[in-house]
Amino acid sequence: MAQRIQRVAIIGSGAAGLAAAHRLQPSFTVDVFEAASVVGGTWHYTEECDIHGSMYRDLHTNLPKDIMAFPDFPWCIPSDRSFVHHTNVQAYLIAYSKHMQLDPLIRFNHRVTLLEKVADSSNESNPFSQWQLTALNTSTSVEMTQTYDAVVVCNGHYAKPYVPSIDNIGRFTGQTMHSHNYRMPEPFADKTVVILGGGQSGRDIAQEVCATARKVVLAHRAQAIGMPPLEETSSIVDVNDNGHLVTSDGQLLEADVLIYATGYHFDFPFLKLEQAGLSILPPKRIQGLYRHLLSIKEPSLAFIGIPIKIVPFPMFDLQARWLHHLWTHPETVPSPAAMIADEKADVDHRTQLGQREQQLHVMSTLQWEYNQQLAAEANTAPLADWRQAIYNDSNANKPGMPWTYKLNEYTLDQETGEWSKTPYLG
What we know:
Elements: E1 7-11, H1 15-24, E2 29-33, H2 65-68, H3 86-99, E3 106-107, E4 110-117, E5 131-137, E6 142-148, E7 150-153, E8 160-161, E9 175-178, E10 192-196, H4 200-209, E11 215-219, E12 231-233, E13 236-239, E14 245-247, E15 252-253, E16 257-260, E17 264-265, E18 279-281, E19 285-287, E20 289-290, E21 294-295, E22 301-303, H5 312-328, H6 336-352, H7 367-377, H8 385-397, E23 409-412, E24 419-422
Parallel strand pairs: 1-2, 1-7, 2-3, 7-22, 9-16, 10-11, 10-16, 11-12
Antiparallel strand pairs: 4-5, 5-6, 8-17, 13-14, 14-15, 18-19, 20-21, 23-24
Helix pairs in contact: 1-5, 5-7
């Protein structure tokens, strides 16, 4: 019979870590380890570069605030816009932590440096290995080590930039940087800037830099934005002898700055992935996870917040509720063979839909089916239908108003679930 989990460590106090702490604390003794001095994770803004955060000064959310809120904590930070400034999100997470009485559980300024499985702590009748966690108190330089029955990794995936290979990039004599280190548009005044990548960050940064730069070119494979003065072209594949950037269709671009808006690697520097039966298929696929969150080989190790292109906070909450149900009902843990077969079926399903294997944590429209699955398996309330309805409406606006969709306003009646939109007509 499986040993009962009692002590749980959570790594990170961003939205995922806070959701995990909230949902697990009624049944377990919980310690949260946070490298920063405040909660918030990626929403904690600093102008310092080359750190964990990737927030930029003027960022507004790309989702309306009401659908971003946790299911049991409606948005409570005043704002005159639906698509709020990042400081509003940080304030919301601070309020959530305080309201749910999570602050006493958090060890701030504690950076986890090592997570190792305790040898021989599991067997055929007990699949739950124990874990030895080492953390450094960055305020005192004192290191501590403790043993836990289970661990939830919530360290986010916006810390280790992914930089694609470009032939002969050494010939480029301008400045190169990743969007991870972008903070504001003023340093690019009167420069020619090429931004590689057409995801949300690339589009946001292009819009901002157009206000100061002499010329901005977005090199990407996504749907065209079509918003002058922004110029658009195909992806960068080479640099010629004159230092010009060469696109996949043969165009030559002169640039003072090349910004990689090309996403991030998953990164768990404190964990030997092979110990947990996990491997990373670069840049964004973790192999060996059941339901995109549970280590198949070591079901006392979980990862909340892995899926991409989602409404994050409500999904994190559902993942945490699912995990609570599993760990309080250890007899329901599927066999490794069953979990491996399920992971393969999920991979097959997504590849049939046209997803590349390296991007199989990208959810987008598939997130709602996944959310329903988690809720059903955890025997818990599903998300309200209005979340998907507002999400779909907001997404439908983006192609026609790529730089102004965030000026639409949504109004929600929390009790009835009725909502309305005041469209931006400027």
